[in-house]
Specification:
By secondary structure, the chain is an alpha+beta fold. The chain has one domain (about 5-40). The chain is built from one helix and two strands; from the N terminus they run βαβ. The protein has one helix at about 15-25, and strands spanning about 5, 30-35. A two-stranded antiparallel ribbon has the order 1-2. The relative contact order is 0.23.
Length: about 50
């Protein structure tokens, strides 16, 4: 399985998913991309929330 983590300055906004990615990165969160199809049962996006 390929996993890719990106930095905030690597993002350009195009759609709703990109907006979510940008918001996560702007708040020092981590974004990880998986191979196509691995999140199909979750409508292609998943979030792990952590409260301090």
């Amino acid at each position: 399985m390929k996993v890719r983590t990106i930095l905030y300055n690597e993002i350009q906004t195009d759609d709703a998913v990109d907006e979510i990615i940008e918001a996560v990165l702007a708040h020092r969160g981590q974004v990880t991309f998986l191979e196509n199809g691995l999140l199909s049962e979750h409508q292609r996006i998943a979030l792990i929330l952590r409260y301090s």
